[in-house]
Amino acid sequence: MLRTEGSTHVDIITRARAHHLTAPEAVIDSWVAASYAGLSYWTDTAPVTLLVRSGFYKTTDLRRPNRRRLSASLEKCTPDPEFPNLRTTMLPYAAAQCLRDIVNNAHGWWTYNVPGLSYGETRSVQFIDAIRQLDPHLNLGDIQAEAKGVVKKTIVEKAVGLSDPGAQSPPETALRLIAAQVHPGLTTQIPIYYGGRLVTKLDCGWRKEKVGLFYDGEHHLTRKQHDYDAEVTLILHDLGWESMRVTNALLQNPTALQRHIAQRVIPRAL
Predict the structure, then answer these.
(1) What fold does the segment set 170-265 form as a domain?
(2) Residue 12: which of 25, 24, 38, 23 has the closest Cα?
(3) In this structure, are strands 197-206 and 187-194 parallel, antiparallel, or unpaired?
(4) Domain segments of the chain: what residues?
(5) pLDDT by residue, tens only, the chain of 270 residues
């Protein structure tokens, strides 16, 4: 069963604490552990998973926890200062379990249509990108090792291979995945300096061709941000860059988006 946004109004940390009080011997896994590690996307509509020694079951009711088997050798941490005895799994192990939920449609969210990828594959890349934002020193090999026997190796390798440490939001992940199909050499978080100061960072783009892309979320609708964005566009033009601001609506039309990008980058690549 695919879990989607809006299926509960109780955040995952509150639910995890409540389940901890009724089952203090359990180790809490998956989306709870990721939330404690700092993941702010998708967790509040995810199930709580308890690792226990008996009484295993799965449920689609977010008011109840899933109960999976606890491994005696599992590494744990205590991330909640208000509940110091609450134990969770470490991030690489938890991430592997979250990937299993995504692949098995046990948890999901609305996402963009990326040509050539299934929605599950896009979600998996978005998840890995978001996890990489939590810890720049995170070893993706640790996640792959923990996913062994949990998620098919080819699925994990594809998600890791398509991920990038520079995607700072799920829409930026989708933008990168769509844009990268237009022309090779796309990179992320490209710094732009003008007059000796850092003016902005392009969400992604092509350095050689000097074509940059921004994803403009809701905060770009404010007058102050709009004025700043206009100034950045002029500076980029002065520096010889072609820039394109991508909105949510355009991101939902990948065919049109790729056409607009190609019109900007291909002539500069010739």
Answers:
(1) Endonuclease; Chain A (3.40.960)
(2) 38
(3) antiparallel
(4) 12-162, 170-265
(5) 344 444 558 999 999 999 999 999 999 999 999 999 999 999 999 999 999 999 999 988 999 999 999 998 899 999 999 999 999 999 999 999 999 999 999 999 999 999 999 999 999 999 999 999 999 889 999 999 999 999 999 999 999 999 999 999 999 999 999 999 999 999 999 999 999 999 999 999 999 999 999 999 766 667 777 788 899 999 999 999 999 999 999 999 999 999 999 999 999 999
